[in-house]
């Protein structure tokens, strides 16, 4: 009985603390987002484009079995508005027609271009250039079974001081590169990496590889992910970046100083969450070198990405994300509570251990002990129901807060019916969707402990692109 | 030990959790209400704004000429905002000869005075908006108010003032910025400063020379970098002085400037800079040589192709590979260096630019005199070598 009481108390404190932290993050994010919107009002992108001081950038597109979307994605990337752009597609040993589709669409020709593997990668088969667009290069390499290896090959071949990693199944908005680089321009000496927002592409209308109309997806499971992405990016990342503690820049869209990435040895091959791993290693190195730096998040440069449409794929993705989390936290456990790693070691890493990694375990233990306490009479039924209702209402409040942030700033969902749908789904996100993600994250922990780090393929619909007549 | 749950339970039905539920529910209703209200308000505002824009546009000539008195629109905040937006957009798109009537309208209506007043007396976003708006007016009387903004203790306001001054694109607007950065105490992002100075000094880059002479350290580097972008042939010998500056960044900027002037007198200086002890100065000199149209640069570039630094070699190769009419001669010169790295870099760039096929077809079409046959063999060997180097590097460095 005594143990049950302690367990319930711990759970109660844990729950209140996690919600209070998220509420604080929401408030910080609102302030930061509103400030950013003000700044945007005075930003003239055409001046940035015309400036002779705008540095060149290399887009790296790792592609593994992306035959459905690769041609459209590359077309969209080449159409981005940026004065000095290079696009490197890395075909990571695709077993489908990815390479063939690229070869046909861009009339690729083999080119013997010097490639020096400063970062170790699987062997290259060939390098191709396109006579259709001289900014495009395709590296055809043997598969290493991980995305990180493909990105590293792209970094080796890149010729610009900044590299931007983009998923092949994603669409960047035309001005997104200029906008994300605005974060670098703010203080090029200190800003070493910038992340942009990743939004859910499913449901939207795409014409000529550009988003024509932003719409919510039809199915509930996809809409839930829209809310999750809004909360994770507009609240979580925005707030952490405000204190220079951003622990992750999404692998789907982020800009890095190329030299620094090379100094830290590139993306860790076979890391499950290579994006999280890289950013934490950058924090580590820069703290160890006592360098003044900033890793920023800019909420307006947008990357649209396809999210899983079925439960099985979603489960795999979430399990993988959680494996990636452990895979990064464990090797960096020595950073915890060490003065030399500053607030990263004292705040963000402990937060990730307690409120991200342990969350599904604590949740499942919590559910069990509360039920036990309820059965054994330690906890009254009325209080249990009240606590459940409070938890639900508070979590829903945070989700609605994320929708509010979207409304106050970028308003991508212009139709009021879409916003109404988003708000309604906020009410269902915490039951039963949250419990499902808890199970998937537990599966991730189990797979990691068993040493199962396999990248399981996900079912993808592919970007369906209309073409203007 | 008494459980926290028990303690809370003692509060009874109106206890903490119940209150928390109510607060959370209230929060949800407030947020949803705010979203709905905001949507409704914005829809109404933009509908009204659209209507007023159409109405004002239909009388635009009268508004501009003053036939419709400013009093008729000036005191309605929405109308005032619309007219100002149209005026500022027109100013930005106008050539110098079409500017006077637009500026007259700003002055006569009192809009310019209002913005100057706001820039001087407001704080926060209002002040920053006023500063940026003043910059867009390109009016000379806006400069003193913008210059005052440079002395704000808030960094954001100083940045707005720098950007505002830059947007005026007037040489006199550069002076307050230059005066302040010369002190070495002025804190604003380097990029904003450089962009503003480039915009302001474009017509008269000479104004920078005096400041570069008196500046030291990072300020000297920054000004030299701006000068590097704006250099014109008239600057002539002043740039040659910078080419022997003790600061490597300044020498690099001098190289950039000499490239931008595209004059033959820059060649000897770039020759010297291409042998500079600092690799990035050599790199910059090579880039500048790419901009100069003088056949004499080939020898310097071929020498740079044998540089110890990979970036310098690659850039020299990039420039050489794009000198189409002289490619065969260059190839001979490169082969004559007997430097395999140089040859590989050059062949790699020829591949990248697509010129390799032309060279190969030229050799194919010839009657195979012995020299060309040898050259063809060397190229073929270098192409193979480039391929092998890439693979070998991947294998050697790889853990796979």
How would you characterize the overall build of this protein?
- The complex is a heterodimer of chains A (469) and B (400).
- With 469 residues, chain A is α/β, with parallel strands linked by helices.
- Chain A contains 14 helices and 13 strands.
- Helices cover 52% and strands 16% of the residues of chain A.
- Chain A has a ten-stranded mixed beta sheet with strand order 3-4-5-2-1-6-11-8-12-7, sandwiched between helices. In chain A, strands 10-9-13 form a three-stranded mixed beta sheet, with no helix packed on it.
- The radius of gyration of chain A is 23 Å and the shape is globular.
- The relative contact order of chain A is 0.14.
- With 400 residues, chain B is mainly α.
- Chain B is built from 24 helices and no strands.
- In chain B, helix 9 packs antiparallel against helix 10 and helix 19 crosses helix 21.
- The C terminus of chain B is likely disordered.
- Chains A and B meet through helix 1, strand 4, helix 13 and helix 14 of A and helix 1, helix 2, helix 8, helix 12 and helix 22 of B.
Please render the helix and strand layout as text.
The complex is a heterodimer of chains A (469) and B (400).
Chain A: H1 2-41, H2 45-50, E1 57-63, H3 70-78, E2 85-92, H4 98-106, E3 109-110, E4 124-129, E5 136-141, H5 147-157, E6 162-166, E7 170-172, H6 176-185, E8 191-200, E9 205-207, E10 210-213, H7 220-242, E11 253-257, H8 258-263, H9 274-288, E12 294-305, H10 311-329, H11 342-357, H12 359-376, H13 381-408, H14 416-449, E13 465-466
Parallel strand pairs in A: 1-2, 1-6, 2-5, 8-12, 9-13
Antiparallel strand pairs in A: 3-4, 4-5, 6-11, 7-12, 8-11, 9-10
Helix pairs in contact in A: 1-7, 1-12, 1-13, 7-13, 7-14, 9-10, 10-11, 10-14, 12-14, 13-14
Chain B: H1 4-10, H2 16-58, H3 60-65, H4 71-74, H5 77-93, H6 99-108, H7 111-121, H8 124-137, H9 143-149, H10 155-168, H11 171-182, H12 190-201, H13 206-214, H14 217-230, H15 237-242, H16 248-261, H17 266-273, H18 279-291, H19 297-304, H20 310-321, H21 327-337, H22 340-353, H23 356-365, H24 370-397
Helix pairs in contact in B: 2-5, 5-6, 7-8, 7-9, 8-10, 9-10, 10-12, 11-12, 11-13, 12-14, 13-14, 14-16, 16-17, 16-18, 17-18, 18-19, 18-20, 19-20, 19-21, 20-22, 21-22, 22-24
